[in-house]
Amino acid sequence: MRLALQGASGSGKTYSSLLIAHGMTSDWSKIAVIDTENGSADLYAHLGAYNVLSLSEPYNPEKYIDAIGICESAGMEVIIIDSISHCWDYLLDFHANLQGNSFANWAKVTPRQNAFIQRILNSSCHVICTMRSKQEYVLNERNGKMIPEKVGLKAVQRDNVDYEFTIVFDVNMKHYALASKDRTELFAGKAEFPLTEQVGMQILDWCNQCRTQPSANYGTSYPAGRVAQ
Predict the structure, then answer these.
(1) pTM score, whole prediction
(2) Which domain holds residue 127?
(3) Per DSSP, what are the bridge partners of residue 137?
(4) Less crowded by CB within 10 Å, the N or C end of the chain?
(5) What is the domain-level CATH number for residue 63?
(6) How far apart are CA 10 and CA 63, in angstroms?
(7) Smallest Cα–Cα separation from 124: which of 13, 215, 32?
(8) How far is it, in rounded angstroms, from Cα 114 to Cα 195?
(9) pLDDT digits 0-9 by tens, 130-150
(10) Domain for residue 228, yes or no?
């Protein structure tokens, strides 16, 4: 599973990711958080004995790639990358400081971003990525008063990065989610709902069904990690 949670700061992306991950594994020791949020993953240690791999600046894609490999070698089943927005911020700063033609300089940036995304897609683990959304306040009426509320907008990552994920959850400030993309069709079209361990269990069931159902193209099933050639 390649899952993304996007939302404004404080929407509960880290906490929700941990609950989903535990629903998929039922074993906290098989969950690793790659933390770029200044130790925010440690705030939920009361949930269980999950693993935390803290990254420090610079948040370059190569550092993320190495961290994914460490988690895989340690036998993790679910890797939470919290968040991949820092990687994109790093690449934007890197690009801004390059000399010469701005357009041509993207040739020095795009391959690094692509390698990072490809590493996520090729991981032997389930991967959950969080993305910060650019924030804005809107006025909503409540009990006859106009109250400002923080809302999440576009995720801080490369445009169309959501294409790479099987499911994308948009998480609001009430810690409820909507599926803005869902290839599983488990959550598409549903009213907003809390992200719980039950959500992780549903996702795991879907993954297991995909492993056992015959391929429509080849009439045979393939073990996890293998692709028909």
Answers:
(1) 0.84
(2) 2-212
(3) 150
(4) C
(5) 3.40.50.300
(6) 25
(7) 32
(8) 29
(9) 998 876 667 888 788 888 776
(10) no
